[in-house]
Amino acid sequence: MSVVRRSNAWVFLAAVTVNSVFFLNFCATLFRCGCASFWSGADARCNIHLSGSHHCPWCAQGLAASLIPWALIAAVQAAIAFWPRQMPVAVRLVFAVTAFPAAGGVIAVVYGWASGYWK
What we know:
By secondary structure, the chain is an all-alpha fold. It is 63% helix and 0% strand.
C-alpha cells in the first residue's frame, strides 16, 4: 500500500471514529429526542420509548435503520478521504471530519421531513 493510500486510510478511520463516537449526541442535538452518548445511556431516554410522541426518525426503526444515516455519513467521509486530488493530509482530515455534521445535517433534514417529525 502506498504512503498516500495509507494516509488516506488513516484520515478515513479518524473521521469515521468521530462519526461513530458522537453519532447519538448528534442525533440528540438535531432531533431533541433524548438520546445521549453511548457511555451515558445511548437511546434509553429517546422519545421512541414514549407513546403518543413523535418518534426520532433515526431511532424509530431500530438499530438497522439507524445504521443507514451513519453509513451515508461514512460514505461522504470515505469519498473525501480517498478523493484522488492531491491535498495535504491535515486539510483532507479537516474536510472528512467536518463532513460529519455537514452531511449528517442534510441527511437529518431529509429524514425529519420524510417522517413528518417536525410537524
